[in-house]
Write a structure and sequence with these properties.
The complex is a heterodimer of chains A (279) and B (324). Chain A has 279 residues and is mainly alpha-helical. Chain A contains 14 helices and no strands. Chain A has helices spanning 5-32, 37-41, 54-62, 65-96, 102-111, 117-135, 143-167, 171-179, 184-195, 197-213, 216-221, 229-232, 244-264, 266-278. In chain A, helix 4 (65-96) packs parallel to helix 7 (143-167), helix 4 crosses helix 10 (197-213) and helix 7 packs antiparallel against helix 10 (197-213). Chain A is globular and about 70 Å long. Chain A starts with a helix and ends with a helix. In chain B, helix 13 (278-287) packs antiparallel against helix 14. Chain B is mainly alpha-helical and 324 residues long. Chain B has helices spanning 2-10, 31-57, 79-85, 90-123, 131-143, 146-156, 163-171, 186-211, 216-224, 229-240, 242-257, 261-267, 278-287, 292-323. Classes of the chains: A mainly alpha (279), B mainly alpha (324).
Chain lengths: 279, 324
């Protein structure tokens, strides 16, 4: 099939416009993180007169960014691993067995996607407060509390996506494992999981990304002790100054690990996402 | 784990039996339940109990006095709902306005994100040199932590030292005064553009994956028949992408309607009336006034609305599929 002039023009125009739209905020972020404070407080300039890495040094002192980094890493990793493990078993059951209550369970899980986060936020907050008053167990302001709330979005999505992915793995593989004398758990561990690796990676990336970027629960459920990056980045605005250059530098630093991870594994992500979502 | 050792002992009889209904009470019938147990327990803790609690809360006069001891909050029946739906009262009017803004926001964001995602997916459908670079580039806004991208926009939208006003007035030389983008009526467009910037790569990702499943010989055959590209898109691409689009549009609708993060990070604590999206509105109604009962009632109303719209959408889509 040969391209007509019309399709060529369409392609070039689309790509150019969308590239500009995509790049500008990223460029502004990167370039402003390398400017001295006085240059981000005056009129904007595309080409900076002074380039400095000072914001990248100062940002660790203005707010305890390293602490927030550690909190974000711990909370996101534990939430991801936990929801992945729980989802593996549940999705395997949904994909490979028919049993009473199967439809009810999978519909329930799917429908939680519809629920606004704010609907869970208020009750969870109150339940946590109550647990604290009645049992002395502190959940608001702890990592445990935050991890539990993060499961509200990562667990249903993981189950949903993995079940779709497992469905795409031929049943003959399970049967072959069975013939070799494997029980269902060994079939899951030795056959299904290795085959489903792209799907597992996709689910893990998704959970980690959403936890890493989560703002709503993080802003209510955290205190000074367990603030995540999402909340910590807001603290560069003081009453006297907004350290835009440090905010932008910090934004670059919190983005780099996740963007690199995503771009390296994006093929898995696309395959996993569509297998789970489109089937 | 005890479940896994027990399963190993039960041997091959407990193996997978496919999709067809199994005979009841076969050996190992409990296995799927054991596999499901952790998920069910967590679902109870994170979804079912909070939801039941939330619905119960919406019938209580749950003000600051009762936060740590809400068992004692007085039961007021449907009072919170009455107030939320009384459009003559300040609370009801605020909710109605916020709802209207959110509907407009959702239509614009989902529409444009879908359109841009589709255009990009079609533009990158065929291989050409450098395709991988653009593919990667377009995915970056989606990969960025959401607050990092939105904060960059927030900086760009500053009145005096922002890149956008600099571009419009200093670079392109448009006449007039630099406007505020994050205060006043412009705030609506600001939040729409930022939300589109974040969401369209997701549409692109899904549609691109969907396009890969369209066999190229269909296009070739139709080209031989003299079909123009636009007609091919309408008659081949769009129908082939139906399953993807069905899920994609619903998911984007739900995410956008419930979006809290974009306005929260973009506007900080004090949102302008024009950018008062509904999740954010409910959050403020609950935590600023510490009236959780009222906030819970609004959440339940929001949930009912989303359930009805999603239900109608799915029914309509399934009927069209049956007719096709």
């Amino acid at each position: 099939m040969h391209d007509t002039t019309g399709t060529k023009v369409f392609r070039v125009v689309t790509i150019v416009l969308l590239s500009i739209f995509t790049i500008i905020p990223i460029y502004v972020m990167v370039i402003s993180g390398l400017k001295p404070l006085k240059d981000v407080q005056g009129a904007f300039s595309w080409w900076p007169t002074t380039l400095t890495v000072q914001p990248y040094i100062d940002m660790w002192k203005t707010v305890p960014l390293a602490d927030y980094f550690v909190n974000s890493v711990i909370v996101s990793t534990v939430a991801t691993v936990l929801s992945l493990i729980i989802a593996i078993f549940a999705s395997y059951a949904i994909s490979r067995y028919s049993f009473r209550g199967r439809t009810v369970f999978s519909t329930t899980v799917l429908s939680t996607q519809m629920l606004p986060g704010v609907l869970f936020l208020l009750p969870l907050f109150l339940i946590f407060v109550n647990i604290n008053t009645n049992f002395g167990l502190q959940l608001v302001g702890t990592r445990t509390g935050l991890i539990i709330t993060y499961l509200t979005f990562s667990l249903p999505f993981s189950i949903w996506m993995l079940a779709g992915y497992f469905d795409g793995i031929p049943r003959e593989l399970d049967e072959a494992a069975k013939v070799d004398g494997c029980g269902p758990m060994r079939a899951l561990l030795k056959v299904i999981l290795p085959t489903a690796r792209p799907g597992l990676v996709a689910v893990a990336i998704y959970s980690f990304m959403t936890s890493w970027g989560e703002v709503l629960f993080a802003s209510v459920m955290t205190t000074d002790a367990n603030r995540t990056l999402a909340v910590g980045l807001q603290l560069y605005s003081t009453q006297t100054n907004v350290y835009w250059n440090q905010i932008m530098a910090a934004s670059v630093v919190v983005s780099i690990p996740i963007v690199i991870g995503f771009l390296l594994l994006q093929k898995n992500f696309v395959a996993g996402l569509t297998a789970g979502a489109v089937k | 784990m005890s479940a896994s050792t027990a399963v190993k002992n039960s041997g091959p009889t407990a193996g997978a039996s496919g999709r067809k209904p199994r005979k009841p009470r076969r050996a190992g019938w409990w296995l799927p339940y054991a596999l499901l147990a952790p998920a069910v327990i967590f679902e109870l803790v994170i979804h079912v109990i909070p939801m039941v609690t939330g619905i119960w809360m919406s019938f209580l006069k749950l003000t600051k006095m009762f936060i740590s001891n809400w068992g004692n909050a007085p039961f007021v029946g449907l009072k919170n709902y009455q107030v939320a739906l009384d459009f003559d009262s300040a609370v009801g009017l605020g909710l109605l306005k916020s709802f209207g803004i959110t509907v407009a926001f959702t239509i614009l964001v989902v529409g444009f994100s879908w359109g841009l995602g589709m255009a990009a997916a079609v533009a990158l459908q065929k291989t050409f040199k450098g395709r991988a670079i653009f593919r990667t580039l377009f995915l970056i806004p989606y990969a960025l932590p959401m607050y990092a991208g939105v904060i960059a926009w927030k900086f760009m939208l500053q009145k005096d030292n922002g890149a956008l006003n600099h571009l419009i007035f200093d670079n392109l030389g448009l006449p007039g005064d630099k406007p505020f983008w994050l205060i006043g009526d412009n705030a609506f467009f600001a939040v729409v553009i930022v939300a589109i910037w974040r969401l369209w790569p997701f549409a692109f990702l899904m549609l691109m994956a969907g396009l890969q499943s369209v066999p190229t010989d269909v296009y070739e055959a139709s080209a031989v028949d003299g079909a123009k590209p636009l007609r091919q898109w309408w008659a081949i691409t769009l129908p082939m992408l139906r399953p993807v689009n069905m899920v994609l549009v619903l998911v984007m609708f739900l995410w956008t309607f419930n979006d809290f993060n974009t306005p929260f990070v973009l506007f900080g604590g004090s949102q302008p009336p024009a950018g008062d999206l509904i999740s954010f509105h409910i959050y403020n109604a609950s935590f600023l006034t510490w009236n959780f009962g009222s906030g819970a009632a609004m959440s339940v109303l929001l949930l009912l609305f989303l359930l009805v719209v999603s239900g109608i959408y799915l029914l309509f889509m399934n009927r069209r599929k049956d007719n096709a």
